[in-house]
Amino acid sequence: MDILFVCLGNICRSPLAEGIAKYYAKKLSLKLKIDSAGISKWHSGESPCEGSINIARRHHIDISGLKSRQVSVYGDSHFDLFIGMDRGNVADLIELGFDKKRVRKLGEFGLSNADIPDPYGYKDEDGFESIYKMIDIGVRNLFEKIKQSGIIK
Length: 153
What we know:
Elements: E1 2-7, H1 13-27, E2 33-38, H2 50-58, E3 81-84, H3 87-96, E4 103-105, H4 125-149
């Protein structure tokens, strides 16, 4: 199964989700292809923001080598699941032409359908920590749901 995490710029939330998902996939020996991308191209080629890198590192996850890229219906249509961080990302993915049945919001998975707020511009570690915790819960619940469906073992 291939999963693409998507946020607006691919420098805060979706790289965190990619790093967290890769961490759990390895820990649980799940055979998944995991990537992230952004709706916009504003930050294409940039590393994740300092706050995301630091909070991931605090949790023993290294996302410093990731580079932002823009999502493309032509280059990314092979993914089985597109996970948006908020309702705007989900709407944008559908508007771009991605299959509505394969587009979900991370908040659907154990977060009462909440949007994952964009921490871009946060200056304090607490803001990034709360985003990290939300993404961590969502990713773990997403993986549990996928495992229960029998798609992956």
